[in-house]
Amino acid sequence: MSNPLQAYWTILRRRWWIPAVLVALTLALTLLTQKPWRPRPPTYALGMAFSVGVRPQALPDQYTYDGYYTALASEYLIDDFSAIVKGSEFAAAVSERLKDEGIVVSPGEIQGSAQTGTLHRILNITIYGGDPARVERIADAVAATLIEDADQFMPRLLADQGAVYLVDRGGANALGPSLRERLDLPLRLTLALIAGVGVIFLLEYLDDRVRDRKDLEALGISVLAEVPRRK
Predict the structure, then answer these.
(1) What is the pTM of this model?
(2) Which H or E run contains 115?
(3) Nearest of 61, 213, 45 to residue 138 by alpha carbon
(4) Same structural domain, 67 and 152
(5) Residues 68 and 150 both lie in one domain
(6) Which of 27, 158, 178, 198 could form a disulfide bond with 162, CB atoms 3.0-4.6 angstroms apart?
(7) pLDDT tens, residue by residue, 159-203
(8) pLDDT digits over 220-231, tens only?
(9) Which contacts (CB < 8 Å, 24+ apart) does range 17-21 have?
(10) CA-CA distances (angstroms) from residue 162 to 3, 65, 77, 92, 215?
């Protein structure tokens, strides 16, 4: 019985050029389209953290569960504002605030540059952009809109008994290449290699030619003699 690993190696060695060509073409196309040797413009990010507070209702002679529902309402508001900040209405309000300051930033740019998230009942907002000064101004406008105009987006809960507070604000810091950018080329080459190996075994499966005595013996045909290959 033949060794399966030896049989696989024989198949791969017979058409080794297929994955080699695919890897070479992938490498050439990636270098041609992405031009990784060119310096990339830096990207800046500025992070902010907000909390939302709701004052408990003063109800005489009634048990208010020690502020449990007040804390729960604040937690729900954090989740709501995470979606509100990414919406078009909030972006339009920030754009108008910047316009009053003489800075033209479209609502679409604000939506594209702002990312939100929640952690431990804290709303985190990160502003991205290629100009650190512009990132700073957009972040200031986002913070001012949240703090001063929060009741416009949640009027029933924030009109009289709640507010948004800025608890942390960082500076605009330059970001290095992301993990996806660093692994893009190796992943492309690996996928090309795997695809090439798959093509080799597909062609081998479809190939019904007889190459040696093992192919004949697999068909149940006895081989009396064979002529060795020339070396």
Answers:
(1) 0.65
(2) strand 114-119
(3) 45
(4) yes
(5) yes
(6) 158
(7) 566 678 899 999 999 988 778 888 899 999 999 999 999 999 999
(8) 677 666 667 665
(9) 18/196, 18/199, 18/200, 18/203, 19/192, 19/193, 19/195, 19/196, 19/197, 19/199, 19/200, 20/196, 21/196
(10) 75, 19, 10, 23, 81
